[in-house]
Model the fold of this input.
Amino acid sequence: MNLSAEGFEAVIFDCDGTLVHSMPAHFEAWCEALALHGAGGIFKEDVFYAMGGRPTKDIVVEINDEYGLKLDPERVAFAKREAFLRKLGSLELIDEVAEFAESLRGKIPMAIATGGTRHVIEKTLQAVGVSDLFDEVVTADDVPIGKPAPDIFLRAAKLLGISPLKCLVLEDAPAGVMAAQLAGMQVISVPAPLNFARK
Done:
């Protein structure tokens, strides 16, 4: 992966699957939460990865539509969050991306723009020791519409005080790549092998 911020005035990172190797823990948490609500075994791993980056409640609504279920998005999201927080000890940085972010420290504004909730993302960044690396953290709690809408990335650019056209984004999920492109930003897609390398 050729990581360079040359020609850009800010860099915005997705968190899960891009900066932090957390997707397996998120998938396990989903499975536990759905099983708790009587819907075990319906969420396949490939579907989970395809939906990466989207807010939890939005995914529950889609699961309901797909399978004719009536799961409560709030309750499932809460159960999924609690299951994930129990797995914080298993999280690791994705080295190549983390080293790139570290190399930019103090040189260029940086933000996290994530489909996760603020509580979970703050705990995630603390768990892997990079809480102090970013100037801004924008989460699903901060915008009315999550990825693939561009709102999260546009808000990050605004908080950093940089034109979206001058922002570089690192993303792993299709919804996040689309959101960044809709925001008018250049995107480096973090390849799946980086996500799966330590499985």
Residues 33 and 78 are 8 Å apart (CA to CA). The longest strand covers residues 167-171. The chain has nine helices and seven strands. The longest helix spans residues 23-36.
